[in-house]
Amino acid sequence: MAKVKGALRLSACDARATALGLRAGMSLADARALHPALAVVEADPQGDAAMLARLADWGRRWTPLVATLPPDGIVLDVTGSAHLFGGEAAMRADAVARLAALGFAARAAIAGTPEAAATLARAADGAIVATGEETRALAPLPVAALGVAAEIADGLAKVGLRRIEDLALRPRAPFAARFGTDLVARLDAALGRTRSSIGARLEAPPYVAERRFFEPILTPEDVSRTLHRLTEELCAMLETHGEGALGLELALFRVDGAVRRIRVGASRPTREPARMALLFREKLAGERDELDIGWGFDVVRLSALSARRLDEAARRLDGEVAGEDLARLVDALGARLGTDRVRRIAPCDSHWPEDAAASIRPGASGSSSAGAPDAASGPDAAWPQPLPDAAADRPIRLFAHPEPIEAVATVPDGPPLRFRWRRVLHETAAFEGPERIAPAWWDEDRLTRDYFRTEDRSGRRFWIFREGLYGRETQAPRWYVHGLFG
After folding, report:
1. Contact by Cβ (8 Å): 347, 384
2. Where is this region: Disordered (predicted)?
3. How many domains would you assign to the chain?
4. Are 428 and 464 in contact (CB under 8 A)?
C-alpha cells in the first residue's frame, strides 16, 4: 500500500489478491471492507527500483542492451540475438521460465518497438508481433494497456473510447488538448509511427566472448579455465581488428539471478591472454574476495569495454618489448590496489610551481587538479632540462600548500632579513634572487610572486616568496615558504 493524495491505496496485488477481486489503485478501506483479514505491507519504491535494476542486469544474459521500464518492467533489445537461443519464441519462454524460477510472475511479449512490446505484455501475454504489424496487433487491446494513468483511461472510456483502435484513426489534437501530449506520444510510439531507443543501462561493449553451460560450473578452477579460454577468444578478435583492450569486464551470471561483475584496466592496450588473466587474479587478490559461486554460474562473459589501435612494436633480442615490464607492473598494482591509486607525475605547461606537474594515471594524457593546466604533451612529455652545471634553482619537493611566515625586510622589494616559520625565528645568512613569476593577463585572482633561495645561519635552505608587488598590487605583501632544499 502507499499514500496517494492523502488516502491509502493498494499499489500492487499478488495473484491471490487479484483472484479475490482486488486491484491496484483501490483504496485500502474498500479492500478491507471486502476482505477484513487482508494482509498489507507498505510500498518500498526505492527497493522496487533496486530490484528492477538487478533484474535488468541479469537480463543481459540474452543481450547487452537492456533497460528498465519503471515501475515493474524491463526491456530487452533482442535484434540479432534471438537466433542464438532458438528463436524469439524459445527466448521468450526461456526468460519467463527463469523469472518464474526466481519467484517472479512475468508477462512477456516481442514486437518491433519497445512501446509495442510493453503494451502487448500488459494485455496480450505471449504475443510475438513482426515489425510493421503493430497497428493490427494492438487495435483490439484496451487503452489502459498503453500504460497511461488510470484517470486518463477512465476519461476516455466515458466518451466511448475503450480500445486502441478507437484512438488510432481519430485526430490527435483533441486528445492532446484534453488528456495531454503523453497519451498521443505513447500511442504513436506503440504503433511504430515514431522510433525511440530503449535507453540501455549500459553501453554495448565493442568485443564480447562468452560461454554458456547446460550444467552450471561450481568451482573456482572451472571459472579460471573458462576465463583462460575467453581471453584467448577475445584476443583473437582484437588481433583481427588490430586493436588492444584497455578496459575489461568479467561478468558471472549465477543461476539464482545474481550477477557478479569484475572490472580491470590496463595502462597500455593489450591482447595478451596471460596478461588479462593476471589482471583479474590480482583484482580478486586485492579485494581478498572469494567468488560467491552459490548454485553455480551458467553464463560467463568477458567484454572489452574500451579498445584502442595497437600496432606491433619492435622486440628486443630477448623477445620483450621495451617498457612492457613496467606496464605489467603498473597493471598488476592497479588491479590489486585500484587504478586510481597508481599514479605518475607528468610535466605541465605552467610557470606556477604548484601547477608545473600533475598526478595522472600511467598511460593517460591526463590533467591536473581543478584549475591547473593539462599535462604538456601527453604521457611521454619530457621534463624541462636545466642548463649544464647549473645549480638546482627549485626544490625537488614542494609543500602541498605554501605556508605563511612572518618576515622582516630592509626595503619592501628586498629579501627577508629574518623570518619566523612554525614558531621558530631564522636569521638570513645568504640569499639568491628574486625570481619573479607574474600571472597571465586573464588570471585576475593571482598576484605576482618574487622567489628567494634563502639560507639561515644554521645552514638550512628555504624557498621563500613574497606575494604581491608593493604599491601596485597590494599595500601589504605577504610572505610564504614554498619548499626546502636538501
Report:
1. yes
2. 353-387
3. 5
4. no
- 241 and 333 in a single domain? The answer is yes
Helical pair 114-123 and 181-190, crossing angle rounded to 10 deg: 90
Give me the mean pLDDT over the 381-401 stretch. Answer: 71
Three-state SS at 134:
helix
Rounded Cα–Cα distance for residues 74 and 55 (Å): 8
pLDDT score at 423: 92
Cα–Cα distance between 116 and 28 in angstroms, integer?
A: 32
More confidently predicted of 282 and 461:
461
Spatial distance between the Cα atoms of 245 and 193, rounded to a whole number of angstroms: 40
Same domain, 163 and 184: yes
What region, left, alpha or beta, does residue 306 occupy, with left being phi > 0 and alpha being psi -120 to 50 degrees? beta
The one-letter amino acid at 139: A
In this prediction, residues 26-40 reach a mean pLDDT of 89
What is d(CA 328, CA 13) in angstroms, rounded to the nearest whole number?
Answer: 55
One domain, residues 232 and 305: yes
Cis bond before residue 404 (omega within 30° of 0): no
Summarised one tens digit per residue, pLDDT across range 132-186 is 888 899 999 998 899 888 888 888 888 888 999 988 888 888 888 888 888 888 8
Give the domain extent around 223: 207-337
